Amino acid sequence: MDYSAFFEVADQMVSGNTKTEIKLYYSDDGSIIDISYELLDGDYIVLTQAEYDACNQKRGDYTVVEGKLQFTPPKQRTWNLVQEELSRNPYICNR
After folding, report:
1. What is the side-by-side order of every strand in the sheet holding 32-36?
2. How many domains does the chain have?
3. pTM to 2 decimal places
4. Does residue 8 sit within a domain?
5. Does residue 34 form part of some domain?
């Protein structure tokens, strides 16, 4: 079987290198709404592959500030109790 005709056609084919853009849609306060390859309604910025890889797994830690993607992790919350604030604490004298 002769496959030369197939290879002649394959050599003549031009592969269309279409560049896909990763669009990050965001709200007015900068929070991320969606990440898509399609053109949707709303404000968006175009991401590089590295930015997409970074923000896709931790969407909540990124916001859009002045048209740029920024890493803005949430502030750490801490709390503590004073021993006297505990009603049934065996380590202090409850009078």
Report:
1. 32-36, 22-26, 44-47
2. 1
3. 0.61
4. no
5. yes
Q: How far apart are CA 9 and CA 95, in angstroms?
A: 94
**Is residue 34 within 8 Å of 22, Cβ to Cβ?**
no
pLDDT band at 77 (very low <50, low <70, confident <90, very high): confident
Residues 64, 75: contact at Cβ < 8 Å?
A: no
Instruction: Note whether residue 11 is domain-resident.
Output: no
Position 6 in a domain: no
Tell me the residue range of the domain where 34 lies. 20-95
**CA-closest candidate to residue 43, choices 68, 11, 18, 75:** 68
Would you put residue 67 in left (φ > 0), alpha (ψ -120 to 50) or beta? left
For residue 24, what pLDDT is reported? 94
φ/ψ of residue 11, rounded to 5: -70, -30
- Alpha-carbon dihedral angle through residues 12, 13, 17, 20, given to the nearest 10 degrees: 170
Q: Name the more confident of 26 and 82.
A: 26
